[in-house]
Design goal:
Layout (H helix, E strand, L loop, with lengths): L4 E9 L2 E4 L1 H9 L1 H5 L3 E10 L2 E9 L6 E9 L2 E9 L5
Parallel strand pairs: 1-6
Antiparallel strand pairs: 1-2, 3-4, 4-5, 5-6
């Protein structure tokens, strides 16, 4: 996933901010263990100009998790992403 982010991209999630490709890649390295076999299902995707908004939920997770992400995209790369969860983290 980190390959979709620009070198100086910013990922904001639950009060944490990951800046730069290396920090974002380190965050995504933790995701498979936290998913614990669950899978992400995308519910909707809306593209308006350089802004992409998508909602998602987990299937097969021990606890329900869902959210909405808003991404700014430039030259085909994510430059800024804000993740908002609907409930607790997974």
């Amino acid at each position: 996933m980190a390959a979709d982010y620009g070198a100086d991209a910013v990922l904001e999630r639950l009060g944490e901010t990951f800046i730069g490709h290396a920090a974002i890649a380190a965050y995504f390295a933790t995701v498979p263990d936290r998913l614990a076999g669950a899978r992400v299902v995308f519910d909707s995707v809306e593209v308006v100009g350089d802004r992409v908004t998508f909602s998602w939920h987990l299937v097969g997770a021990e606890q329900a998790a869902s959210g909405t992400d808003v991404c700014q995209v430039s030259d085909g790369m994510i430059t800024h992403q804000v993740v908002t969860l609907d409930a607790d983290d997974f």
